[in-house]
Amino acid sequence: MKVAIFFGSISDKSIMKITAEVLKKFNISYKSYIISAHRLPDILSNTIKEIESEGTDVIIAGAGLSAHLPGIISSKTILPVIGIPIHCNNNYGSLGGIDALFSMVQMPKDVPVATVGINNSYNAALFAIHILSIKYQNIRKLLLKFRMKKKEKLITEIKQHLLP
Fold first, then answer.
1. Rounded to whole angstroms, how far apart are CA atoms 156 and 19?
2. For the chain, what is the mean pLDDT?
3. Cα 3 from Cα 86, distance rounded (Å)
4. Backbone angles phi, psi at 77, to 5 degrees
5. pLDDT in tens, 40-85
6. pTM for the complete prediction?
7. What's the 3-state SS for the chain?
8. Are the C-beta atoms of 51 and 29 separated by less than 8 Å?
9. What is the sign, positive or negative, of the torsion defined by CA atoms of 63, 64, 70, 76?
10. Phi, psi of 93, rounded to the nearest 5 degrees
11. What phi and psi, each to the nearest 5 degrees, are found at residue 2?
12. Going by C-beta distance under 8 Å and a sequence separation of 6 or more, which residues neighbour residue 133?
């Protein structure tokens, strides 16, 4: 397994499944875990130790509201952690994901969490792929091919919309 995907609540699944879909397109193995940082801290600690021993390279963690999951994970490992702030639709006075975003980007020194935009699990997966491409040549080749296809598609679209 190269990537561990964590999310703190079952309600985050629809956002986090996009991460898995992108990783699958690059043939990257992953495991996912639903573990609340606040309600199941011992299970979270044990799981982090387990994934480290399995050789995981990158962790992607999504969380809403106070969004402590990525930060707590980062405090317990030296693996890179990519945080996804999630906009929660609930009755708890959600702030549209801004609360989760600030919680992640304002991490204290020495406990870094790379953070993407609110609900942007697609970019979290791509960032993980970029990190993995440093170590794995096959992923690097797939990433370069992916980027070239995106570039060619954009150029084609632009040409179709030029003024006569």
1. 27
2. 94
3. 19
4. -150, 160
5. 999 999 999 999 999 999 999 999 988 899 999 999 999 999 999 9
6. 0.94
7. CCEEEEECCHHHHHHHHHHHHHHHHCCCCEEEEECCCCCCHHHHHHHHHHHHHCCCCEEEEEEECCCCHHHHHHHCCCCCEEEEEECCCCCCCCCCCHHHHHHHHCCCCCCCCEECCCCCHHHHHHHHHHHHHHHCHHHHHHHHHHHHHHHHHHHHHHHHCCCC
8. no
9. negative
10. 75, 40
11. -100, -30
12. 139, 140, 143
Would you mind telling me the total number of residues written for the chain in this entry? 164
Grade residue 92 by pLDDT with cuts at 50, 70 and 90: low
The first and second tokens of residue 78, run together, are 């030296």
Q: Within its chain, how far is the Cα of 122 from the centroid? A: 8
